[in-house]
Amino acid sequence: MNNRPLVEAWIDVHAHFSPPRSSEQSAAMWEAMQRDNWYGEQPPEWSLEDRLAYMDSVGIAMQMLSLVPADHAALEASNRHGAELVAQYPARFGLLMGLPTDDIEAGLQELARADALDADGFAVYCQYNGVFLSDVRLEPLWAELDKRQAVVFVHPNHAVQGQFARPGVLLEAAYQTASVITDMLYAGVFRNYPNIRFILAHCGGALPALSGRLILLGNESWVPNPQRISQQEMREQLSALYLDTAMTGSEQSLSAGLAMTCAENLVYGSDCGAPCTTEHNAIANIECLLAFSGLRPEQVEQIGRNALALFPKAAKRIKYAQ
Hints:
The protein is of the alpha/beta class.
């Protein structure tokens, strides 16, 4: 990579981090990955110094950090650690506070800590400990997030098992996003809580490519639709979703995303910190995004800054540091 950054002052909405792990915890995670057919060497541990150096070299002004551990105690600890990183580097990081969605009381309790931790937004898994985001039991959580006019980052559960002896994060995670967001649509989540801004990881996974089929067939008489979500509602609610560009900066992914939503709803995401992301493929993804011919160059450049409107507190921290 040359000495000139690829981009200038972009905001990365999709960046994972990790509190310090014991050697036993790291070994257990690597064993689980190998059971899911991961090849090669064990990915390196998360490093604050390495992350800041990467951001500086590429031209990333700020990363919105997110992590949603399956264990409630680990989730609370990771949110505290993320808040500490933001306090230490307020112009370089923001916090998307992980919420447990398998227990409504636990979810509401963690949400109540958001102000104390000064969270910029929230992060949830499509499926968390067996509970999907479309589950009716989550209505009180959505209601509270709607009151806050919150930004909610939706990520597939990375522990999904792959098929045909390939890791689940390659394809199954994308299918999970499409399935769960579709069920949220039918459950009336987007209708009932219009003040929540949802960002979908990985350009919505398989959802944009399937959205035309959903709109065409989703209201047929043979499809269960108890909330009577209309075809027009489907079109409008899907188009209101935000999509990040994590590992999806290609013509194929972005074209499908733009067919479902609009350029203003595309936000830059890297997936830094995920085992599947390396500096090499993260940079390659930015290069694909910059070469995308479906938008004018200034529109592509704006993708890197669209998140500033979603996270005004973070935007203020960046401005204050200049």
